[in-house]
Amino acid sequence: xxxxxxxxxxxxxxxxxxxxxxxxxxxxxxxxxxxxxxxxxxxxxxxxxxxxxxxxxxxxxxxxxxxxxxxxxxxxxxxxxxxxxxxxxxxxxxxxxxxxxxxxxxxxxxxxxxxxxxxxxxxxxxxxxxxxxxxxxxxxxxxxxxxxxxxxxxxxxxxxxxxxxxxxxxxxxxxxxxxxxxxxxxxxxxxxxxxxxxxxxxxxxxxxxxxxxxxxxxxxxxxxx
Length: 225
Description:
Rossmann fold, 4-stranded antiparallel beta sheet, globular
């Protein structure tokens, strides 16, 4: 789906065209000092008159980036049997039930495993165990696994998750989200930005947006609006 514009509610509720966003993205990338690694591009959305401590205002959403995220991410899997074998062809971060329980004996190893992956999926019948034993580590990170049935096509799920970003709010009225990498076209990144803004707006109304910035990993932020 082609998205051309988004109404960003900063100042005078100006409708910013996709091409305008792309110009700002290009400016950001051009001004960013080149590094010896591929920098991510992210946006920061600041809110006003929103108490992020209130349950209704907390953000914990996933947004599919229409143009992809521009780089690979690690996906962890908790599964037994055939699903375990299938998962090992797609990820090196795979634990069966026995291994899952073994990790519980060492909280440090649990945290290390959790931090190694951007997101997780789990065989449906393992979810109660994961919630009980791993919830204390995964939940605060916003990484509780997606439950999948035994017949699920893991390859298809992996492809979708690799292009999906999580947006999780904390106490401060601001959220950050990756929207691509510096080697992607500004137009594609702009389309991803619009998708993220639209996703956030489904939970927090646009009149609560204060400002929106774009930046690379190491650059100074540039205000979109």
